[in-house]
Design goal:
Blueprint (H helix, E strand, L loop, with lengths): L3 E4 L2 E4 L4 E7 L8 E7 L6 E6 L6 E3 L7 E6 L4 E6 L8 E8 L4 H7 L10 E6 L1
Parallel strand pairs: 2-10
Antiparallel strand pairs: 1-3, 3-8, 4-5, 4-9, 5-6, 7-8, 9-10
């Protein structure tokens, strides 16, 4: 059974940076689109950024464009989210997700069909 394990969350001041990592088990990593979602206080979970299996296709939520960068290392079964210039509005629990969608945007907009999620990592940005 595939498992997703996130790390890298924490507390920073506005303008700071964090890098989230999500490592998966199993040998099908490179065939899955991977994504980062978040759920802020009192909000629904939303797709932040996703990347296709090869890394050729990426998708960003408008609020993440220019500040966040998603990448993956298929040799390490790991996907990353580099978050720069963080804002208090980025405060949320961040979840890693995976699915066999070909296009990154599909994962971000539809979510994982088999509900394959990590346990989440907290990101807190103070003003």
């Amino acid at each position: 059974q595939v498992q997703l394990v996130e790390s890298g969350g924490g507390s920073v001041q506005a303008g700071g940076s964090l890098r989230l990592s999500c490592t998966t088990s199993g040998d099908t990593f490179s065939t899955r689109s991977m994504g980062w979602f978040r759920q802020g206080p009192g909000k629904e979970r939303e797709g932040v950024s996703c990347i296709s299996g090869s890394g050729a296709s990426t998708h960003y939520q408008d609020s993440a464009k220019g500040r966040f960068t998603i990448s993956r290392d298929n040799a390490k079964n790991t996907v990353y989210l580099q978050m720069n210039n963080l804002e208090p509005g980025d405060t949320a629990v961040y979840y890693c997700a995976a699915d066999y969608y070909t296009a990154a945007q599909e994962l971000c907009t539809k979510g994982p069909r088999d509900e394959l999620w990590g346990q989440g990592t907290q990101v807190t940005v103070s003003s």
